[in-house]
């Protein structure tokens, strides 16, 4: 059974297209708004937070590194996240005070490159 092709089928074609859009994964992700709810930054590129503690996250096998991270409580919504501290010796400059976090998201990539962070 194919699609309707008559002269008076515009409403049926339009409503069927509207229903079928919700079976598309990207459309549903963009229009439900759950991606913004799951994101602790709430759609923003930066957020300010208070450092709670310094933690070391171990890498998965076969690596044996300890990734230097900090546990941060965001000021805007109170959510606690783990943030990666990038360069060598930068963990020494971080104290228990408010500082700004930066995050860049690309399409089709994970929230953060570091696993478990």
From TrEMBL:
Q: Does Ribonucleoprotein count among this protein's keywords?
A: yes
Xref: InterPro entries: NA-bd_OB-fold, Ribosomal_uS12
Q: Where in the cell is it found?
A: Rough endoplasmic reticulum
Q: Where is the composition biased (Basic residues)?
A: 1-20
Q: Which keywords has UniProt assigned to this entry?
A: Ribonucleoprotein, Ribosomal protein
Main location group: endoplasmic reticulum
Keyword Ribonucleoprotein applies: yes
Q: Which GO terms describe its cellular component?
A: cytosolic ribosome; ribonucleoprotein complex; rough endoplasmic reticulum
Pfam families per the record? Ribosom_S12_S23
Q: Partners and quaternary state?
A: Component of the 40S small ribosomal subunit. Part of the small subunit (SSU) processome, composed of more than 70 proteins and the RNA chaperone small nucleolar RNA (snoRNA) U3.
Q: Which PANTHER family match?
A: 30S RIBOSOMAL PROTEIN S12 FAMILY MEMBER
Q: Which family does it belong to?
A: Belongs to the universal ribosomal protein uS12 family.
Q: What is this protein called?
A: Small ribosomal subunit protein uS12
Protein species of origin? Monodelphis domestica (Gray short-tailed opossum)
In the record, what lineage is assigned to the organism producing the protein? Eukaryota, Metazoa, Chordata, Craniata, Vertebrata
Question: What gene is behind this protein?
Answer: RPS23
């Amino acid at each position: 059974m194919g699609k309707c092709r008559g002269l008076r089928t515009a409403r049926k074609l339009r409503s069927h297209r509207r229903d079928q859009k919700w079976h598309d994964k990207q459309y549903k992700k963009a229009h439900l708004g759950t991606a913004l709810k799951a994101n602790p930054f709430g759609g923003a590129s930066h957020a300010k937070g208070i450092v709670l503690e310094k933690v070391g996250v171990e890498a998965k096998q076969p690596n044996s590194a300890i990734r230097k991270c900090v546990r941060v409580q965001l000021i805007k919504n109170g959510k606690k996240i783990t943030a990666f501290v990038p360069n060598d010796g930068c963990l020494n400059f971080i104290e228990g005070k408010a500082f700004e976090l930066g995050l860049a998201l690309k399409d089709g990539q994970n929230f953060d490159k570091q696993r478990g962070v």
